[in-house]
């Protein structure tokens, strides 16, 4: 019996909108574990009208563009630039619609993998790329044939890293060495604790400030804080701030009045009930997340980036100091402290 033709391991660029990043991380992990090489732009911040160099380099490196297609992706000019450039470079483009969002006319006749059922879609994708021997029972055989044919024509990439604008030494061998292709280095998301701690001691807070190098004007004056990558957006009438450095989405503003701690929980419940910004997973930030917002120098009267509303000077966190006290962050003093649960502070919700 003829053995299936061995394909080069796919070098996959995942094009997606920021709102779909949770699914993209799942797909990225599954593909990498199955032997594919994967590149994802986790930073997301892009300026000007042209593709950033790292995106252009990744498109040169890849042989397959996986297009995670959703309403958010359809409205993203950066996603459009990625898939249109991939077509221009004659890359294999595999659309993966998450919902009933109409594909662009140029892709309308392209075989796609249906991700309306995400577990089944992931199985079909792995089988189509010959990264799995089982699963994919609903896989379109025509699509699989197209993918196999394209990948079988793909030569190994000579790029071991994004191209550099510098001369390269000529190797002494009679034949040039072909290095194993390596995805361009992608920015690392800063991981912050999102699960509340009860109780959270003063000593633990002091240690956290030192470990994370967070600035606190009383407890850690030498802290440098985080180099944020903020993006101000509006979703369903709600003003939000995306922090591409931490992967968090914040309310640009927050509660209009001070509220006690228990009322802060009710405020969060109301946001989720209203589907605020199109999301239902808002929560109070942990102290670690809230302290990440503190800037080491004042912007006006607050140690807070001007991208945020200036009304909320003190915000509750989800961490308790003791049964009757909770931690809060004060942007006017650039510090954190704990207050009685009956005290009134602001609410600025966050989601991961």
Characterization of the model:
By secondary structure, the chain is an alpha/beta fold. It folds into two domains: 11-152, 3-Layer(aba) Sandwich (Rossmann fold); 202-351, Mannose-Binding Protein A, Chain A. 26% of the residues lie in helices and 17% in strands. It has helices spanning 21-33, 53-61, 71-74, 77-88, 118-128, 141-152, 202-212, 261-273, 287-291, and strands at residues 11-15, 37-40, 64-69, 92-97, 230-235, 238-243, 248-251, 314-322, 325-330, 335-340, 350-351. The strands form three sheets. A four-stranded parallel sheet has the order 2-1-3-4, with helices on both faces. Strands 5-6-7-11 form a four-stranded antiparallel sheet, with no helix packed on it. Strands 8-9-10 form a three-stranded antiparallel sheet. The chain is elongated. The chain starts with 10 loop residues before the first strand and ends with a strand. The model is unreliable at 160-172 (pLDDT under 50).
């Amino acid at each position: 019996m003829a053995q299936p033709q061995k394909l080069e391991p796919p070098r996959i660029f995942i094009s997606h909108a920021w709102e779909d990043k949770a699914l993209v991380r799942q797909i990225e992990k599954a593909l990498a574990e199955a032997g594919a090489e994967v590149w994802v732009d986790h930073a997301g911040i892009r300026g000007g009208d042209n593709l950033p160099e790292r995106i252009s380099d990744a498109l040169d490196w890849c042989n397959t563009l996986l297009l995670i297609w959703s309403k958010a992706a359809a409205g993203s000019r950066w996603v459009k630039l990625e898939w249109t450039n991939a077509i221009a470079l004659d890359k294999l483009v595999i659309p993966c619609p998450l919902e009933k969002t109409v594909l662009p006319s140029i892709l309308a006749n392209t075989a796609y993998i249906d991700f309306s059922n995400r577990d089944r879609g992931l199985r079909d994708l792995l089988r189509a790329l010959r990264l799995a021997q089982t699963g994919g029972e609903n896989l379109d055989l025509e699509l699989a044939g197209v993918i196999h044919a394209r990948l079988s024509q793909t030569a190994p990439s000579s790029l071991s890293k994004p191209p550099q604008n510098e001369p390269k030494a000529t190797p002494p061998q009679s034949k040039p060495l072909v290095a194993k292709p390596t995805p361009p280095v992608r920015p690392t998301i800063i991981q912050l604790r999102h699960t509340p701690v009860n109780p959270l001691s003063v000593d633990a807070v002091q240690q956290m400030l030192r470990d994370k190098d967070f600035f606190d004007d009383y407890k850690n004056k030498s802290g440098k804080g985080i180099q944020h990558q903020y993006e101000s957006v509006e979703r369903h009438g709600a003003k939000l701030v995306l922090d591409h450095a931490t992967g968090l989405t914040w309310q640009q503003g927050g509660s209009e009045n001070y509220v006690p701690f228990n009322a802060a929980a009710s405020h969060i419940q109301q946001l989720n009930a209203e589907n605020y910004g199109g999301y239902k997973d808002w929560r109070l930030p942990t102290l670690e997340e809230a302290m990440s917002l503190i800037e080491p120098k004042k912007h006006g009267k607050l140690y807070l980036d001007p991208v945020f509303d200036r009304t909320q000077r003190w915000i509750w966190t989800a961490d308790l100091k003791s049964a009757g006290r909770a931690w809060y962050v004060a942007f006017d003093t650039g510090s954190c402290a704990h207050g009685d649960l009956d005290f009134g502070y602001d609410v600025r919700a966050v989601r991961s």
